[in-house]
């Protein structure tokens, strides 16, 4: 099957420096937002100059990269800044399951960015297309009269699925799997992505706040960043809810750090990233022991990863080697994915798949779509939230349910304000 691309005549791209725009989500003129924000820096975008829909298959990252290279090769680019994220950029979101057709790359018409004290505006469109002003066409409206309901499985049914997974693991079929839950929300009016983005970026500045084609969230997990030949990643696996006091936080963090169950779960993820990236890198640095990462709602075991690529590879090439990691699938990958399909009883769609951006140089930043919600395209007053937990032989269904509820809280707070 061929990739499907929707684009007008050959594109002209012009990037110009602009004064500091301030709060990036506040400058989005329309609810249909694209975004990638970290500590107030990043890029936001709107409009659609081109869309590439990516069919299912294990080679979907490679095919998407090839098609995007062809598109950018025919583009007239005027980019005097030549920074990561300037010039033409495609925002992307890939389905978790290689059997799903939900993956997409979108090249917007306008991109507003800020990095290391430099701000810019990129205009993308047919020749002679004039730039839109940076003005709010539709002021954002917070969601109201929210009604919450169970997703595919009720809490007791999901706990039973976890118990089944633990039994399979103990009988030696696999070492780890990851089971996700969904939660539905209904608002009185269409949900404005900009409100969610602003709340997430404010409350979770250390996370990567994203929006791509109705998928919105703030992920703590950097799957891969590519800048020239340098790559960075952040492995997260092993989680506990935050405590009520600093002392409680410290106790929980120490318990997490010394937990055999959580250290085993983290080791699966870190070892897989090492195995995936070593063949691509001239050098790779992964710490022997994880560190503690504290977020407003949870505490994670984290391992930062740094490396140098051995030759020219785009960020999508590296994604192809990494996805899916044990942090969102399990290990071995095949049996873990089969068990997810059997026990979750739902289609994850783009939840737990790669989400991020890539520019014409092959640079980009991609995270795992966690702590997120997907807006319903047929009914914009509805959305579906997701949360997942790593399951190993020592997992307790009640504790996993509490962890999932803690992970839901980021998006629930974004809706409720």
From TrEMBL:
Does the UniProt entry include the keyword Isomerase?
Answer: yes
Reaction(s) the record says it catalyses: chorismate = isochorismate
Report domain Chorismate-utilising enzyme C-terminal positions: 157-407
EC annotation? 5.4.4.2
Per the record's keyword annotation, is Isomerase included, yes or no? yes
From the UniProt record, which GO molecular function terms apply?
isochorismate synthase activity
Q: Which UniProt keywords apply?
A: Isomerase
Q: Which domain of life is it from?
A: Bacteria
What Pfam families does the entry give?
Chorismate_bind
Similarity field:
Belongs to the isochorismate synthase family.
Report the protein name in the record: isochorismate synthase
Q: What is the lineage of its organism?
A: Bacteria, Bacillati, Actinomycetota, Actinomycetes, Streptosporangiales
């Amino acid at each position: 099957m061929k990739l499907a691309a929707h684009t007008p005549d050959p594109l002209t791209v012009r990037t110009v420096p602009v004064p500091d725009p301030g709060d990036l989500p506040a400058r989005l003129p329309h609810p249909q937002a694209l975004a990638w924000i970290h500590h107030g820096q990043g890029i936001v975008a709107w409009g659609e100059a081109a869309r590439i829909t990516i069919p299912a298959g294990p080679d979907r990252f490679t095919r998407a990269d090839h098609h995007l290279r062809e598109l950018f090769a025919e583009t007239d680019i005027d980019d005097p800044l030549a920074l990561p994220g300037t010039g033409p950029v495609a925002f992307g979101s890939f389905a978790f399951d290689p059997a799903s057709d939900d993956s997409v790359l979108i090249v917007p018409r306008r991109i507003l960015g800020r990095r290391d004290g430099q701000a810019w505006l990129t205009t993308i469109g047919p020749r002679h297309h004039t730039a839109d002003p940076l003005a709010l066409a539709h002021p954002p409206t917070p969601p109201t009269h929210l009604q919450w309901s169970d997703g595919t499985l009720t809490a007791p049914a999901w706990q039973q699925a976890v118990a089944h997974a633990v039994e399979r693991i103990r009988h030696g079929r696999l070492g780890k799997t990851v089971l996700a839950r969904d939660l539905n929300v209904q608002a009185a009016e269409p949900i404005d992505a900009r409100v969610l983005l602003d709340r997430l970026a404010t409350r979770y500045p250390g996370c990567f706040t994203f929006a791509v084609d109705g998928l919105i969230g703030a992920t703590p997990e950097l799957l891969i960043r590519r800048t020239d030949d340098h790559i960075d990643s952040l492995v997260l696996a092993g989680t506990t809810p935050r405590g009520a006091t600093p002392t409680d936080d410290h106790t929980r963090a120490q318990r997490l750090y010394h937990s055999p169950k959580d250290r085993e779960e983290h080791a699966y993820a870190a070892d897989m990233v090492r195995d995936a990236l070593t063949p691509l890198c001239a050098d790779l640095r992964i710490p022997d022991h994880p560190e503690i990462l504290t977020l407003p709602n949870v505490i994670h075991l984290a391992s930062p990863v740094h490396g140098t690529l051995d030759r020219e590879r785009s960020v999508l090439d590296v994604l192809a080697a990494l996805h899916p990691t044990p942090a969102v699938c399990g290990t071995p990958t095949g049996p873990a994915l089969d068990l997810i399909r059997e026990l979750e009883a739902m289609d994850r769609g783009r939840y737990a798949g790669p989400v991020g951006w890539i520019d014409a140089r092959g640079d980009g930043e991609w995270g795992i779509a966690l702590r997120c919600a997907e807006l319903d395209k047929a009914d914009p007053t509805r959305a579906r939230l997701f949360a997942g937990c790593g399951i190993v032989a020592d997992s307790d269904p009640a504790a996993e349910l509490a962890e999932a509820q803690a992970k839901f809280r980021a998006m629930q707070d974004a809706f409720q304000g």
